[in-house]
């Protein structure tokens, strides 16, 4: 900031003095809700375990079926994508809830997690489109 052609007093302290790129991010989560952290951790853990168990039951049900129509194949693939979805995001979120002062994630780890999440989301959209087309062909 310049006043009348001269830099203002104290402006040098307010300037950003970082010299390198960001190497890690600090995930704080629900840092202001300290009294609810354990309850939220338990709720998210139970929901995560139920999701994992449900997807595993779909795998077992499809494996026990002697004749596998295409829709069962698609359901198995959808279950696998959902399993990967939850394994990409939830463990780091649970770790963030369990840590008292937050956790750090590297910039590369954050980029990898975001890439996997977006790729799985796109794959799920294509799979749902293929499932709907399969139903359309079966009906018509």
Automatic annotation (TrEMBL):
Family per similarity comment: Belongs to the G-protein coupled receptor 1 family.
Instruction: Name any GO cellular component annotation.
Output: membrane
Cellular compartment(s): Membrane
Q: Which InterPro entries match?
A: GPCR_Rhodpsn, GPCR_Rhodpsn_7TM
Ranked from the top, the taxonomy reads: Eukaryota, Metazoa, Chordata, Craniata, Vertebrata
An example molecular function term from Gene Ontology annotations: G protein-coupled receptor activity
Q: Name the species this protein comes from.
A: Chloebia gouldiae
Predominant place of localization: membrane
Q: Which PANTHER family match?
A: OLFACTORY RECEPTOR (PTHR26453)
> Where, by residue number, does the polypeptide cross the bilayer?
38-64
Q: Which UniProt keywords apply?
A: G-protein coupled receptor, Membrane, Receptor, Transducer, Transmembrane, Transmembrane helix
Q: Where is the G-protein coupled receptors family 1 profile domain?
A: 54-140
The name of this protein is: G-protein coupled receptors family 1 profile domain-containing protein
